[in-house]
Structure prediction request, 127 residues.
Amino acid sequence: MQHGKFGTAINCMDGRVQEPTIKWLKQKYDFDYIDTITEPGPDKMLSQGRPEQVESIKSRVFISVNKHGSDTIFMAAHYDCAGDPVSKEEHLKQLRECLKIIRSWNLPVKNIIGAWIDESWTVEVIE
Prediction:
C-alpha cells in the first residue's frame, strides 16, 4: 500500500541535477516522493541506447507507475553532462525523441514532461 503522492524522474546520475529536479517536481505537482531513475546521459541512452538499456529504464518506470501510482514522468537533459557531452541543441533533439518513446509505452499517466536543466541548475520545461 502506497503512502503519499509519487512522481517519476528519469535523470542523469550527476548529483548536481538531482536536487533541482526533485525540488521543482515537489513544488510544481505537490509530490511527496520522487522515484528517480538515473543513468549517465539518460537522454542519449533512452533515445539511442541498446534495447536492453531502454528496457531497463522502461521496467523501472513501470514499477514507479504501477506500484507507486506515479502519474507524472519527468525526462531531463542537462548542461555539462559528462555521460553525453553534446550541445544543448543535440540534447534537446534527444530529449524530444525520448518523449516520443515514453509516450509509446502508453502509460496511465497525466503528464509526460521534458526539461532542460541549465548551467544555473534551473529547470526549463521544453515540452
User: Anything to note?
Assistant: The domain at 6-125 is CATH 3.40.1050.10 (Beta-carbonic Anhydrase; Chain A). The mean pLDDT is 96. DSSP finds four helices and five strands in the chain. The two ends are 32 Å apart (CA to CA).
